[in-house]
């Protein structure tokens, strides 16, 4: 996109569409004029007959490509129609386009949905890029050869511009080996950025200007009276009501069947129960089972299925399955992974697609918004301990954390007190609760080569994050601070990306997240911290809201986050060829990320282990980080993407020429 470089070619647009065909196998479309080219791959969910993209406005002023859904589009359309705006389709895509033309930047704060949007206004020579509140839908940008390239996935940018240099970014890897993910706008790739969640970028070619605005950032009350002032019972009722409507919206705003993931935990069980309440026994649920008993939740899944009477589907995943899928998982995730957790979800989304379902509800976002993670409880215990650091009784509360781990960090009291007792004097500083996790991940950077460490230099990723916190951050309660950091780091970069969008879209399935409904996000942020984390009872208000809808055994069980076998999946010498190739000495040297000596020692430790080996958390993360970084280098850096050929059904070409 640049006047000086001539129009984009149709062949480049077809390559970009072909590179992300998996995201939209139903239809492809292209738009081109003298300045801009747009390509779209469609997963048809709303207005199957007339929702093709790229889509022009009725008056011809603008054209849009859009990935995602605007769940309140019916209400917005009615409001726009009353204002005199005309529509040619029944799609949410057209509503998003007309809303921009009518309301400008303000439209995005009115959307209740998940989106990555590009709108081009030819007469103004203005391009608008926007991303939803918490980054459910991805949007990447790169500049090369006088052009701006943008796409849902990085591989589409590399396919459209094969001459663009491809390299791993040391600073992006530094963030990954600190926060478990790079933080937007940084990515693991040199020269490629990710548009921040809740952000709109307007590029004005006519005047050579760019403008970024935030339409959303997580925020919490600084004073109790500024938030939710009702009783706990009032909060329970409002949470239940909003979640029910958020689930209903995500089902009725689809012209195809909608199913639900069912993990056996509180969050997905509640969503599945609400789904069945709306749709009845024709509702499909999908569960992931593990051969390893430590990770398996079959008992709770089947108990919930028996209660709600859904049409249930299961897939069983073992260690060899994880190893077999890992190269494809990394190719789709487009980032290093410090856990294998996305791999089983790849199989789960395939189960959904094989059942003929395109859309699933999930419980993602509940732990971040209603304080479900052990990290929140850990932070509360450590802050309580910090008030009397010499206390012998206060640190005993650590015994109540991580009951599900075979090698729990609190299983040895002496080690736990040493680990969690560090830096108690910093209890009032930002990131205090997250510091143990970040420090544990950062220790893995000992595997980096000297040139990698030199490229990172004295840069401190944690200090950079702290320096970029909202001005009101210090006035929020401690739990709210922890929730903000969890949303900004792990939710967007890992849970919604590596484990969410990328594993779903790898099999052309759309995930919908009732807990990330705009209204639910607002309510959960306003609730008093004690409603969410009551003493050490996580998600207290949510448990009470779900009490009449889910199995008591699920409500009463100890919190067990989703996990999968990590290094254990790669024990022994019998590895898939692509895994062995990526971990070969020559491949490690070519990537230039990891030093040969310590990396070889780590790999040999895993290769020589037996099937019942127990690896430390550090070894698990180190191995996964090395393996997936190497796979990322092999699949997207060492070779260019090979997109499939596509035949667009919709071609809007103002230039009317083949190239």
Question: What can you see in these coordinates?
Answer:
- It is a single chain.
- The chain has 25 helices and 17 strands.
- It is 41% helix and 14% strand.
- Helix 5 crosses helix 14, helix 9 crosses helix 25 and helix 10 packs across helix 17.
- The longest helix has 28 residues.
- Strand 7 and strand 8 form a beta hairpin.
- The mean pLDDT is 94.
- It has 659 residues and is α/β, with parallel strands linked by helices.
- Among the domains are: 160 residues, Aminohydrolase, N-terminal nucleophile (Ntn) domain (Glutamine Phosphoribosylpyrophosphate, subunit 1, domain 1), CATH 3.60.20; 193 residues, HUPs (Rossmann fold, 3-Layer(aba) Sandwich), CATH 3.40.50.620.
The amount of helix comes to 40-55%
Report the strand count: 17
CATH superfamily of the domain at 224-331 and 357-369 and 485-556: HUPs
CATH topology of the domain at 224-331 and 357-369 and 485-556: Rossmann fold
- Poorly predicted regions are none
Distance between the termini: 16 Å
| Spatial shape | globular
> What is the strand arrangement across the widest sheet?
3-4-5-6-10-11
For the biggest sheet, the summary is: 6 strands, antiparallel
Which CATH class of the domain at 224-331 and 357-369 and 485-556 applies here?
Answer: Alpha Beta
- Work out the helix count: 25
What structural class do the secondary elements suggest?
A: alpha/beta
């Amino acid at each position: 996109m640049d006047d000086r470089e001539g129009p984009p070619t149709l062949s480049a647009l077809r390559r970009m569409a072909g590179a992300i065909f998996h995201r939209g196998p139903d239809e492809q479309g292209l738009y081109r004029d003298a300045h801009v080219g747009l390509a779209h791959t469609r997963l048809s969910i709303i207005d199957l007959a007339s929702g093709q993209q790229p889509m022009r406005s009725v008056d011809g002023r603008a054209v849009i490509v859009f990935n995602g859904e605007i769940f309140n589009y019916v209400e917005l359309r009615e409001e726009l129609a009353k204002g005199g705006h005309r529509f040619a389709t029944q799609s949410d895509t057209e509503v998003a386009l007309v809303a921009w033309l009518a309301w400008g930047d303000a439209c995005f704060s009115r959307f209740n949905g998940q989106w990555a949007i590009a709108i081009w206004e030819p007469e103004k020579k203005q391009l608008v890029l926007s991303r939803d509140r918490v980054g459910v839908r991805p949007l990447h940008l790169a500049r090369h050869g006088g052009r701006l390239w943008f796409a849902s996935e990085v591989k589409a940018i590399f396919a459209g511009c094969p001459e663009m240099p491809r390299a791993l970014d040391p600073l992006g890897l530094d963030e990954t080996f600190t926060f478990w993910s790079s933080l937007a706008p940084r990515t693991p790739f040199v020269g490629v950025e990710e548009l921040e969640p809740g952000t709109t970028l307007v590029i004005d070619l006519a005047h050579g200007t760019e403008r970024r605005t935030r339409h959303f950032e997580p925020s919490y009350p600084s004073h109790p009276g500024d938030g939710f002032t009702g009783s706990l019972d009032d909060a329970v009722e409002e949470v239940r009501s909003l979640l029910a409507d958020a689930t209903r919206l995500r089902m009725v705003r689809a012209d195809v069947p909608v199913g639900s993931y069912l993990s056996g935990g509180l969050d997905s069980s509640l969503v599945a129960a609400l789904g069945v309440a709306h749709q009845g026994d024709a509702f499909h649920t999908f569960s992931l089972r593990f051969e390893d008993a430590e990770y398996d939740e079959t008992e709770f899944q089947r108990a919930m299925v028996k209660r709600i009477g859904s049409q249930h589907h299961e897939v069983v995943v073992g260690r060899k399955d994880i190893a077999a899928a890992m190269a494809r998982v990394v190719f789709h995730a487009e980032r290093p992974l410090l856990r294998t957790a996305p791999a089983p979800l790849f199989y789960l989304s395939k189960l959904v697609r094989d059942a003929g379902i395109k859309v699933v509800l999930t419980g993602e976002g509940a732990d971040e918004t209603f304080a479900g993670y052990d990290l929140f409880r850990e932070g509360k215990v450590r802050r309580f301990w910090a008030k009397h650091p010499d206390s012998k009784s206060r640190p005993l509360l650590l015994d109540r954390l991580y009951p599900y781990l075979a090698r729990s960090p609190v299983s040895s009291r002496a080690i736990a007190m040493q680990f969690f007792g560090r830096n108690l004097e910093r209890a009032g500083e930002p990131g205090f609760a997250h510091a143990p996790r970040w420090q544990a991940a950062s220790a893995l950077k000992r595997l980096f080569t000297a040139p990698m460490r030199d490229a990172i230099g004295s840069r401190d990723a944690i200090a950079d994050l702290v320096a970029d916190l909202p001005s009101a951050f210090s006035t929020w309660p401690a739990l709210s601070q922890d929730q903000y950091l969890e949303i900004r780091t792990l939710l967007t970069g890992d849970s919604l990306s590596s484990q969410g969008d990328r594993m779903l879209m790898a099999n052309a399935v759309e995930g919908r997240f009732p807990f990330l409904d705009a209204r639910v996000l607002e309510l959960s942020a306003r609730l008093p911290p004690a409603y969410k984390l009551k003493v050490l009872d996580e998600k207290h208000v949510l448990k009470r809201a779900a009490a009449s809808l889910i199995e008591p055994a699920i409500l009463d069980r100890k919190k067990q986050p989703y996990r999968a076998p990590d290094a254990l999946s790669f024990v022994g010498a019998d590895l898939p060829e692509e895994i062995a190739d990526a971990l070969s000495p020559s491949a490690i040297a070519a990537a230039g990320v990891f030093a040969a000596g310590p990396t070889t020692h780590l790999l040999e430790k895993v290769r020589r282990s037996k099937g019942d080996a127990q690896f430390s958390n550090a070894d698990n993360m180190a191995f996964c980080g090395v393996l997936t970084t190497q796979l990322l280098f092999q699949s997207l850096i060492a070779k260019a993407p090979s997109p499939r050929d596509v035949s667009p059904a919709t071609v809007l070409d103002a230039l009317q020429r083949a190239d």
